[in-house]
Design brief:
Blueprint: H1 12-26, E1 44-48, H2 57-73, E2 77-81, H3 88-97, E3 103-107, H4 108-116, H5 124-129, H6 138-141, E4 154-155, E5 159-160, E6 162-166, H7 167-172, H8 184-198, H9 211-222, H10 240-255, H11 267-275, E7 281-284, H12 286-296, E8 304-308, E9 319-322, E10 324-328, H13 334-347, H14 350-353, H15 355-367, H16 382-392, H17 404-410, E11 415-417, H18 423-439, H19 445-462
Parallel strand pairs: 1-2, 9-11
Antiparallel strand pairs: 3-10, 4-10, 5-9, 6-7, 6-8
Helix pairs in contact: 1-2, 1-15, 9-10, 9-18, 11-12, 18-19
Signal peptide: 1-27
Keywords: Signal
Protein name: Extracellular solute-binding protein
Length: 465
C-alpha cells in the first residue's frame, strides 16, 4: 500500500520547529540561477505539489509556513505551492499538458515505470551538488535508480513491514516475549499457543480494502516469491511461495483454529482489536500500526512488541517495502532541478540531517503527545540515521527494548517493493483469494491462484505502459 494509509500525525508543531531550525541551517545556500524559470533578478521559481487542500486548514498553514521559512533561507528560490497530488490518470494528463509540478511525491510502486517512460528527471548530479548523494539510504536509493545506474528520485517516506505481537498475551500463553517468532512455522506454533491458552486470536490478517493482498504480498516475499514480472507485464504469484503462504493461513484457520472469528479486517479495525488484547500477532507498517494501537486506541506501551517479518521456505526471502518518492519534472532546467533538491532536503529530510531540526521536531512531538522514536526504515544512510537517533534520544517515548527483533535486522534486510503495475488492482484480486481461503474450508488454493492470475493478467494488459 502507499503512504495515505498511515496514521495521521499528532504533532503539527513539530513540523514548524523542524522547519525553522533547518531554515537557519540552510541560510545562505541559495542556488545560482541560469535559464529555465530564472527571473530577471536571478530568482529561480519552482512549483511544488502536495500542498494540503483548503479544508485541511492546520496542515495547509504548516505547509505554507515551511514555504516561507525556506524562501527566507534561500532568497534566490521562489516556491509556488500546488495542490496537485499523485493520481495515475491526472499525472499522465499533467505530463502531456505541461502542467506537472516541478516537485511531486509518487508511490514507490510507480517510480520504475516513470523512469522507463522518461517522465521523471535525472537528478544524479543535483544530488551531489546539494550534498545528498552520500546521505541517502543505499537500500532505498536502489528503488529509484534506472538501469543506467542514474538516480531519478529521492525516497523520503520509506517503510518496511514488520510483525507486531502482544507481549502480554505471549506471557499468558507461556511464550517468551523476548524471543518472538523468526519463521512462519514459529508464528503458527505461537498463534496456536495463544489461542489455546488465552482464548484470543493468535494471529490475524487484514483482508479488505486491498490490505489482504498487501499482506499476502509481504508473506509471499518473505517466502521467496514475487507478484509480477519485473516489467509488470505478467502476474507471477501462482508459485510455491504464495501457495505456501495461503496453505499456512488455511491450516492456521481450519486446523488450528488460531485466527479468531473476524476474517474481514481492515487496517483500522485490526489495530483496534490488537490494542484491546484480542489478537496475538499481525503484520503491518510499524509507524502506522504503533500510532494506531498506542496513540489512537490506548494500548499500554509495555505490551507492544515488534519484530522482523518471519521467513519461510525459499532462498530469496525479502521484506516488503513501500513509501513515497519525491520526483522532479523531466522538463525542469538545471537550475530548477538544483532548487528542487534543496527544497526536498529542507522539507522532507531536514530533521534527519540537521541536529537543530531533529531536536525541535522530537521535542514538539513529545510535548504534543505524539510517539517519538518508532522504528522505521531510514531515508538516510545508516550512519546518518544513527546520529539522528542520538540527537533525539532525550525525547524518545516508545519502548525500544521491545522492538529489537525488528531494529536489529533493519540495516541489512533485503527490500522488495510493491508490484510495479496496477498494485491496488492486484491487491483487490488477492483480497478475494484470501477471504475465500479464510471463510471456505474447502477452498482450492491452486484453483484460486490460477483464476486470480488470469484476472490480474487481463488487468495488467490494459494498464498503461
Amino acid at each position: 500500500m502507499t503512504t495515505p494509509r498511515r496514521a495521521p500525525r499528532r504533532a503539527p508543531a513539530a513540523l514548524l520547529g523542524g522547519a525553522t531550525a533547518l531554515a537557519l541551517a540552510l541560510a545562505g545556500c541559495s542556488t545560482p540561477s541560469s535559464g529555465g524559470s530564472a527571473a530577471g533578478d536571478g530568482t529561480v521559481t519552482i512549483t511544488v505539489g502536495d500542498r494540503p487542500s483548503a479544508d485541511q486548514a492546520a496542515a495547509r498553514a504548516i505547509y505554507d509556513r515551511r514555504v516561507q521559512e525556506f524562501q527566507k533561507a534561500n532568497p534566490g528560490i521562489r516556491i509556488e505551492p500546488s495542490e496537485t497530488v499523485w493520481d495515475v490518470q491526472t499525472f499522465q494528463a499533467n505530463v502531456a499538458g505541461g502542467t506537472l509540478p516541478d516537485v511531486l511525491k509518487v508511490p514507490f510502486t510507480e517510480i520504475q515505470a516513470l523512469i522507463a517512460r522518461k517522465q521523471v528527471a535525472d537528478i544524479t548530479d543535483q544530488l551531489k551538488e546539494v550534498g545528498l548523494a552520500d546521505r541517502l539510504n543505499p537500500q532505498t536509493v536502489k528503488i529509484v535508480q534506472g538501469r543506467d545506474g542514474r538516480t531519478y528520485g529521492v525516497p523520503v517516506l520509506p517503510y518496511a513491514i514488520g510483525l507486531f505481537y502482544n507481549r502480554a498475551l505471549f506471557e499468558k500463553a507461556g511464550l517468551d516475549p523476548a524471543k518472538p517468532p523468526r519463521t512462519w512455522a514459529e508464528v503458527r506454533a505461537a498463534a496456536k499457543a495463544v489461542a489455546e491458552k488465552t482464548g484470543q486470536a493468535g494471529y490475524a490478517q487484514m483482508a479488505t480494502e486491498n490490505t489482504g493482498g498487501w499482506m499476502l504480498t509481504a508473506q509471499s516475499y518473505s517466502m521467496g516469491g514475487s507478484i509480477e514480472s519485473e516489467d509488470g507485464a505478467k502476474a507471477t504469484f501462482d508459485d510455491a511461495a504464495m501457495r505456501n503462504a495461503l496453505t499456512l493461513l488455511k491450516g492456521m484457520r481450519w486446523e488450528d483454529d488460531s485466527m479468531g472469528t473476524n476474517f474481514l479486517y481492515n487496517m483500522n479495525d485490526i489495530a483496534k482489536d490488537f490494542a484491546a488484547g484480542k489478537i496475538g500477532m499481525f503484520l503491518s507498517v510499524p509507524s502506522a500500526a504503533y500510532q494506531a494501537v498506542v496513540i489512537n486506541f490506548d494500548m499500554p506501551k509495555k505490551d507492544v512488541g515488534l519484530t522482523a517479518v518471519p521467513t519461510g521456505p525459499g532462498n530469496d526471502n525479502k521484506v516488503l517495502s513501500g513509501g513515497s518518492v519525491e520526483i522532479v519534472n523531466p522538463k525542469a532546467s538545471e537550475a530548477e532541478k538544483s532548487a528542487a533538491l534543496k527544497w526536498i532536503a529542507f522539507f522532507d529530510l531536514g530533521k534527519y540531517i540537521n541536529q537543530e531540526a531533529a531536536v525541535a521536531d522530537a521535542k514538539a512531538s513529545a510535548q504534543d503527545g505524539g510517539a517519538v522514536g518508532i522504528p522505521r526504515l531510514s531515508p538516510i544512510s545508516p550512519e546518518g540515521f544513527e546520529r539522528y537517533k542520538e540527537w533525539i534520544a532525550e525525547y524518545v517515548n516508545v519502548p525500544l527494548e521491545n522492538f529489537t527483533g525488528y531494529t536489529d535486522n533493519l540495516a541489512t534486510v533485503q527490500l522488495k517493493t510493491e508490484p510495479v503495475k496496477s498494485a491496488q488492482e492486484v491487491y483487490a484480486v488477492l483480497d478475494t483469494v484470501l477471504q475465500k481461503v479464510l471463510t471456505d474450508k474447502g477452498a482450492d488454493v491452486d484453483a484460486l491462484l490460477r483464476e486470480a492470475v488470469a484476472t490480474v493478467d487481463t488487468k495488467l494488459a490494459r494498464a498503461p505502459r
